[in-house]
Every structure is written in C-alpha cells, then in structure tokens.
Design goal:
Elements (H helix, E strand, L loop, with lengths): L1 H17 L6 E4 L1 H12 L5 E9 L8 E7 L4 E3 L1 E2 L4 E3 L4 H5 L3 E6 L6 E9 L9 H26 L6 E9 L10 E4 L2 E5 L17 E9 L1
Antiparallel strand pairs: 1-7, 2-6, 2-8, 3-4, 3-7, 5-6, 9-11, 9-12, 10-11
C-alpha cells in the first residue's frame, strides 16, 4: 500500500492529464512546475525529481519523435533524452502563461503517461562513501516529504513509504560485499543507519554509478 501511495503522490498529475493513445501526447506544464519549484526552493545537493514518458502498462520508455512547449503566444522546442526523460525548464512565466507540453511519440499507438522519479544528479563514484550516502538518503526523505505536501507528511505521515536507504544502479556488476549492502547483478541496496553520518569510509568498486534512487520498503 505504501509503495502504491508513493506512485500516486508522484504520478497522479501525469496520469490524470496525460494518458492517451493518439498521435500527440499533451499535458499541462503546471504539474511539472510545482515539483520543480520544490527543488528550486530546497537545499538539495544531489536529490532531484525527474520526468519520464513511459508506457502505461510496462513503464518502459515511450520513444519520442519530437516535442515542444506551447503557450498562446509562443512555441519552443522540448529537450529530452533517448530514455524519454523530459528536460523541462523551471519557468514561472511558462506556468503563468498556462503552457502545455506536446510530445509526438515514435509509436502513435503507444499508451503513454508521465512518470515522476526521485533520483540523484551529479552523484558519482567519488561520492560513494557512507557519509555521502547518508546525506543523499536524508535528501530523498526530505524531498519526498516536501512533494507530498503538509497534509500527507504531517497529518498522515504513517501512510508515507518507509525509506530504508538508497538503491544504487551501476553500469556493470560492482562486486561489492559489505555489512548493510545487498547486491543483485548491477543494483545494490544500501541500508543507511545513523552511524554513517560522519563516516567517510569508501565503497570501492570498478562499476560506474549510473543513478541512485530511494530504497522504499514495500
């Protein structure tokens, strides 16, 4: 239930306004702006919320043929990646101008939706210490709380997902073995504890860090 609530908290706006199987996928910019505003006003060194266009059934990326950001008076190109991540600007003007995001999928029959993903930015192998993972773990926790809003985080906090630590995805199998660390192929889960706060011990691996996400207890 808690993991389902997380998906609801982070994905509802995209699902409600953007699910469609037609030549163009259209969704309002305001839901993205609200989440980008949380990042802009917070003090997050690594934690971010990113936006992906994914298949509604499989959550696999929906390939993008083209995209644009449209208001009543302007059109500008949408930046995106091969993994269908939408690289949106933080713009109060676009929010006030009621901008919409228009995406043409590679497959016009694809059922797509927006996926909101909390993950790391600029976190590399040089940061792979207990101290930095502790910092990132708490940034994720704070960001999740901020995104959920006052009502859920303060009055219904018991419904929020229980975060155990962080999940690190590597480009290749990391061959890591340490207390509190469990790995399966290229993904390792780090159970972060309070005694990691000032511990500069490093996790040494030749596997390159691809991304870090919260480890949520299901």
């Amino acid at each position: 239930m808690k993991s389902n609530l997380l998906a609801l908290l982070l994905g509802l706006a995209g699902v409600a306004t953007g699910v469609q199987a037609q030549e163009e996928f259209v969704v309002s910019y305001d839901g993205f702006y609200d989440r980008l505003k949380v990042i802009e006003k917070g003090e997050f060194e690594f934690a971010r919320v990113n936006f992906y266009l994914v298949d509604i059934a499989t959550l696999a990326p929906c390939g993008i043929k083209s995209g644009k950001i449209v208001t009543e008076t302007s059109v500008q190109p949408l930046n995106y990646t091969q993994d269908a991540q939408l690289l949106l600007p933080y713009s109060e003007k676009l929010d006030k101008d009621k901008a919409v995001i228009v995406v043409e999928p590679l497959d016009p029959q694809h059922d797509c939706q927006i996926k909101f993903q909390i993950e790391s930015a600029y976190f590399t192998n040089t940061h792979l210490t207990k101290q930095r993972l502790y910092q990132l773990h708490h940034e994720f926790d704070e960001l999740l709380s901020d995104l959920s809003g006052f009502f859920v985080s303060k009055l219904m906090g018991f419904l929020l997902p229980e975060q155990q630590g962080v999940k690190v995805t590597f480009a290749s199998e990391p061959n890591l073995s340490a207390p509190g660390v469990t790995c399966e192929k290229q993904v390792c889960q780090f159970k972060v504890t309070d005694d990691w706060e000032n511990d500069t011990a490093r996790f040494n691996t030749l596997g390159e860090v691809v991304t870090v996400t919260p480890w949520i207890e299901k």
